[in-house]
Amino acid sequence: MPKVLKAALKETSQLLNKDVGEFPVKHYSASALIKFTSNPILFKIQYINNDRFETASSISSVIGSAFHNAMEVYSGGSDTLIPTNEAEAIEYGLKTGMSFLEEYNDGFINFSEAIPTKQKAFEVFAFAFNEYVKYKPYEQEKVIAVEDEIKQTINVEWRGKQLTLPVPLKGYIDKVYREGDKLKIKDYKTCSKFSDPEKIDGAKIIQAVMYYLLAYAKYGEEPYSLVFEEVKITKNRDGSPQVREYEIIFADNDLYFDFFFRIYEDVTRALNGEQVYVPNVHTMFDNEVSIVSYIHRLDVAENVAELLKKHNVSNITELLKTEMQSAGNMRKLMKAVEANFAVAKNIDYSKMKPEEKIATKLLEHGMALKFDSVINGATVDLYQYSPSIGLKMSKVKNYAEDLEQVLGVSGVRILAPIQGTTFIGIEVPKKERIFPTLPAFDGFNIAVGQSILGEARRFDIREAPHVLVAGASGQGKSVCLNAMITQLAQIPNVDLHLFDPKRVELKQHKDKAVEYESDPIKIWFALIRLEQEMHRRYAILDKHNKKNISEMGGSMNYKFVVIDEFGQLTAGDIEHTELVGTGELWQKGERAGQEKMREEKKNVSKEIENKILLLAQLARAAGIHLIIATQRPSVDVIKGTIKANFPTKIVFKTSKAVDSTVIIDDKGAEKLVGKGDLLFAGDHGVERLQGYLS
Questions:
Q1: Which of 82, 246, 450, 626 is most buried, by CB atoms within 10 Å?
Q2: Which residue has better confidence, 20 or 162?
Q3: CATH code of the domain occupying 354-429
């Protein structure tokens, strides 16, 4: 037994002349001894007077507590959540930590600039926990106890002698486990930066020795080591592991015990009324010097004299240099072992319900959602969740592909939030879909599709006032156009003008139309006539002082102009040559007195685009409405002027997210599953529907 230790124990036993029951404290904990070194006044308030302050905790410590709660469950230490395999351990641990954070009163949290909200805390915790289970092996040790609360009077055989400490010790050990034939202790710590293994950490020394003594006293076996597992909550820029181990091997480190026993002695002396010196273990710049000085009792004159002689130095400065060099064994024992396991870790989703899969997957990314209800539709099921406070909707929208992976389906769409509600919605396509047929005719209230609730979604096409239908080829545009034409054809006093450059889709409705054209030149002329008709109608409305044709008592028919694949007309390079007058007359010959003519080429594509825009801007009150469709939802076809003048949009599956954004200024159409699955953008926002069979 070291000489210093013998003196410490002898003096402690002599000084403790009261019964333990009369002593100012009932036990020592690591936090109590550390508090004594850094703030003896607060030590007295908390541990002698037993007064408690309802003070707020730092958000970092709250996240640390959440991590400890998660690790208790992950390690199998919970009485209520008992994992049977690694996947369940990850799932249960993640949910436990998130629940702890969610239920923690915000009023008792000191948020920081780096972690300013509860939602950010969710993300930080989830990141730390996921990184831990990613890089650490599971069940490679035999767990003896988890979150083990131990209060013991220490009376053990130590280094061949009987060691008795009169004031009991108390601690909460994160994990006691066996690795081979060695009894080990593990302590989890979350941190913003890793500890420096080259520095002497007085707080870790106190905690390590106390845990050693508690585990030894309870289990009757000397622990081999204590492993501090640090989990860094800020992401390493170099991609290195977020988990690092510092292992303290007790048998190789008498200096740790020297330090602890002197702290134990001096705190006891102080509580018996003596004046003592202890180093502040939290001092930033000179704590290593003070700890080494304290261990070797350089504050005691006779000890200094003995050491000066031993090391053949003449002053205390040289002596300190010598002793600091000899403290290398402390740093040696704090070896850093980076756990870099390539084993993939995951949660077993196979036994979960869809709503549990969704919530758990988002938990992995630090987003806490509470399941509310599910609405079963014809094409998709809508799962509704209440979000945690501070959760950004834009963040949730980025995880559709993660949900598709865990649900085993494609076409998941996230509504954050659901229009007109406080819920976040997750639309999950059904494996067996229902394809509805057109509902009963209802005049100008055109049925565009069936909602998730199974109801017919209708809109007054006169109020649309113009409709843009877009999406990739084969996704349902033509069926949609057929369904609308079928309904429009049943309305009395309605004229249908069908323009079909593809010469395929609208031909079947030729007998229902007052006009059907497929040639681009003829379509251009037809649009010119419609423009002339618009001006004629406005002249009549002005004459009768009316605002629109609905006030004319049915004397004018509504005209619906349907153009399939208008992009083929407007984005092409169609030219037309015509003769135009020059303003000069022939002076001689048979054509004398006639105007001279010249050939002029016109870009028919541009002319058609201009006519479509003109009608879209002005023709509503004249009762002329446009329905245009394209399978080319690109910016050169759906220009800003087209989008602005076609506020009602029916969007089918697009091949890319950028195409969806071009049409409705948002992603989502690329997640549709085809065969009539559509987004309807109208007065009520964007709604997912299943299109009707015509």
A1: 626
A2: 162
A3: 3.30.980.40
Do domains 354-429 and 445-575+611-690 share one topology? The answer is no
Q: What is the largest CA-CA distance in the chain?
A: 143
Terminal-residue alpha carbon distance, the chain: 94
How much is the pLDDT for 587? 78
> Right CATH number for 445-575+611-690 from 3.40.50.300, 3.30.420.10, 3.60.21.10, 3.60.10.10?
3.40.50.300
Instruction: Parse the chain into domains and list their residue ranges.
Output: 3-26+141-337, 56-140, 354-429, 445-575+611-690
Asked if residue 445 has pLDDT above 80, the reply is yes
Say which DSSP state 105 is in: -
Instruction: Please report, for residues 71, 91, 129, the alpha-carbon distance to residue 83 in angstroms, rounded to integers and kept in the order given.
Output: 12, 9, 16
Q: Is 264 left (phi over 0), alpha (psi -120 to 50) or beta?
A: alpha
The reply to whether the predicted model has a pTM over 0.70 is no
The amino acid that residue 471 corresponds to is: G
pLDDT at 526 exceeding the cut of 70 = yes
Distance CA 677, CA 450 (A): 10
Query: CB-based contacts of 576: which residues, under 8 Å, 6+ apart?
Result: 521, 524, 601, 602, 604
410 touches 404 (CB < 8 A):
yes
The tens digit of pLDDT for each residue in 380-409 reads: 999 999 988 778 888 898 899 999 999 999
Query: Do 48 and 270 form a contact (C-beta atoms < 8 A)?
Result: no
The C-alpha atoms of residue 69 and residue 165 are separated, in whole angstroms, by 31
Strands (E), 359-514: 369-376, 380-387, 413-415, 424-429, 445-450, 456-460, 467-470, 494-499
Residue 105 phi/psi, 5-degree rounding, is -65, 120
Give me the phi and psi of 170, to 5 degrees please. -140, 140
Model confidence band, residue 44 (pLDDT cutoffs 50, 70, 90): confident
Distance CA 485, CA 562 (A): 8
Per-residue tokens: 352 = 């979960």
The region of weakest confidence among 25-39, 577-591, 641-655 is 577-591
